[in-house]
Amino acid sequence: MLLKRLEISGFKSFAKAVSLEFPTRITAIVGPNGSGKSNIADAIRWVLGEQSFKHLRGKKGEDLIFGGGGEESSASRKVARLSKASASLVFDNKKKVFPVEFEEITMSRRVYRDGINDYVLNDSQVRLKDIIELLSKVGLGASQHHIIAQGDSDRILYASPKERKSMVEEALGLKIFELKKTEAERKLAATEENIKQVESLRREIGPHLKYLASQAEKMKNAAEIRKNLAELSVGYVSREKKTLEREAGEIENTKGPIEKKMQIMEKEIREGEAMLGGGNEAKNFFDELKRLDSAHDAISHKRIEFEKEAVRLEVAPAKSAGASNNMLAKDRVKSVLMELASNLESASRSGTMEAVRNAIFETTQKIYSFLESINGENHAAGKPDTASALNRSKEAISALANEEKEILAKKLELQKEYETRARNLQKEGAALRVKMEELAKTKEELRSFAAREEKTDALKKELELDFSELLREAKSAGDIFTGLERADMRKKIERLRIRLEEAGGVDESVLKEHDETKKRDEFLSKELDDLKKTAGSLKDIFDELADRVEKDFETGLAKINVLFREFFREIFGGGSAEIKMSKPEKPKADELEENWQEEIAEEPGLEINVDIPRKRIRSLNMLSGGERALTSIALLFAMSTVNPPPFLVLDETDAALDEANSAKYASMLRELGKKTQLIVVTHNRETMKAADVLYGVTMGSDGISKLLSIKFEEAEGVLAKVR
C-alpha cells in the first residue's frame, strides 16, 4: 500500500492524537451522523495542500483547530480548546513512486490560532509549492479530483469545462507537464520583457557613446603617448621587479648557508675551547687505574689461597698409601698446620701489631684445642673424600684467573684510550686556530652581503615611490637589468612623461567613461544575444511540452471514454456516455451578450453527454440526484482506472444509491480496489462488506471523536474459532 497511515492531532473534533493504519486495499470509515467521519477526509485533503476553507468546511484556519467541548453545566467534563492542529500522511516509497531517496515519506501540516501554516516533509520545513510539485508527479494535483467530499460526488458534472479538463489532466498525470509549461511560459514572458529593457538601454546609451568616441578620437595623440608610457612603465617595473627579486633571492640563497655555516663554526669553536679547557680527565684516569689495581690484588690473593688448598688436596692421597694406623691423626695435623700458617701469613701482610697479636692468640687456641682432641680419641680407619673438594678448588682458580685477565685487559684499554685522547687534544688545538681564522673570513663575507642588501632595499624604495600603482599589479617578467639598461629605460620614461605634460591636460575621466560605456554596450549586446537564444529555447520547450500534453491528453481521454461508456452501461443497464473536447462558439452580432467578452477568453474544456436508456435525457441538468451520483461515479472510476492515483477518498458518494445500485457500486469498488487504494466514508452496508478494514468513529459528551477498528480477516478468524 502506498498510503500507510494518517496521524491526526487537534484537528477539528479529533482533540486527541489518533492514528489510522491503511494496510489493505479498501478501508471503510463508518459512524453516526456528526461523529466526525468526514473530518478524516478533510484532514487528508488539508495535508495535501488544500487552500479553500469552503472545501474544508470552515471560514478560517482557526476553525480547523479543536475549539473545546463538554457540557457547560459540568466543569469537570469540559475540555479546553487547543492552540494548534496537525495532521500527517505517511507514504510507503520503497518502489520509488515519489522521486526522492527516502523509503518512507511523512508529509505534515500544522496550523496555529494566528493562522500561520507550516508544511513539513520528513522533519524538514518546506514550501506549499514543494508539496504541490511532489504530489503532481504521482497524479495528486491541486484540483484534488481523487478526494470526493460529502455531497460533492457530482462536482465534476457541475464543474466548468475548463475545470473538468484540469481534473482529467491531473487524473492522467499531465499536471506536472502543465506546471512545467506554465513555468516555461512565465520565464519566456520575463525573458521577452528583459529583451525590451536591454534594447531600450542600448538605444539610450547609443548617442552618448558616439559623443564619447569623438572626444576620445580628439585625444588620440595624448592617449597614444599615455599608452606608450604605460607599456614602457609596465615593462620597466616588471623587469626591475624581476631583477630585484632575483638579487634578493641570490642574497637569501647564498647568505642562508653562510650564516648556517658560521653558526656551526661558532658552535664547534665553543666545544673545542670547552674540551681544551677541561682538566679532570687525568684525575679520572688515575682514579680508575687505582680501582682496577685494588680489585686485581684482591682477586690474586683469593687465587693463591685456592692454589694452596689444591696442592694440599693433591698431596694427601699420595701419602695415604703407606701410612700406618695413626694416618688419620697425621692428616688432621697437616690440615691444622696449614690453617695456622695461613693465619700467620695474613698477619704478616697486614703489618700492624694488633693483627699479629690476634693471629698469635688464635694460633695458640687452635693448637691447644687440637692437642686435646688427639688425647681423647681412638684410632679411626678410612680415607677422606678429597676428589670433589679438589675439583671445586680448580674451578674457583680458573674463574679467578679469568677475572684477573679481564681486569688487566681493561687497564690496557684505559691506558690506550688516555694516550689517544692526549694526542687528539694536541691536534684539536691546531684545528681550533684554523677554524677561528675561517670564522673571521665568513663574517667578512656576510658584511659584503649586508651592503648588497642595503643597495637592493634602496632600489625597491625608489621603485615604490615612482611606480606605486603599477607595482601592485605588475608581475615579474622580462630580462634581468644591467646597470646601463636600467639608466637608459628610466631616461625614456622621463622623456615620455615630459611629452605627455606638453600635450596638455588629458581628461582621463572622459577616456575612462568612454571605455566603461563601450564595455557596457558590448555587455548589453551580448546579454541581448543570450536572451534571444534563451527565448528561442523556452519557446521550443513550451512547444514541446504543449505537444506532449496535447498528445497524451487525447490518448488518455480516448481511454477514459471507453471505460466511461462501459461503467455507465453496467450501472444503468444500457445507454451511452461520452466526454469530449468543446470550444466556445462565437455568437452572431445580434446574439452578442455583455458577458461574452469573458466567455470567449476561456480556454477549451470538456463537455459530458449522456443517454440514459428508456429516457430521452441528454442534458446533465435533467438528471435526478441518484442519476447524477451514478454518472459521476462512472466517470470517476473510469478516470481512476486509466491512470490509478495512489489512493482515492470517497466521502459518502453512495448516499443517494438504492439497494440494487449499492450492490453494483460495491462490486465496482472491489474492481477499482485492485488498481488503487480506497478510503471510503459510508453508511451503506454493501459498501462496508466490500471493505477489508472497518474504522468506527464515535463522539461522546465531551465533543471528541474516537476511533474503533476491526479487520474483517481477523474477525472471520475469531468467529471461526467460536463456532
From TrEMBL:
Coiled coil residues, start to end: 174-201, 397-442
Lineage top rank: taxon: Bacteria
Keywords: Coiled coil
Residues of the RecF/RecN/SMC N-terminal domain: 3-705
InterPro entries per record: P-loop_NTPase, RecF/RecN/SMC_N
Protein name per its UniProtKB record: RecF/RecN/SMC N-terminal domain-containing protein
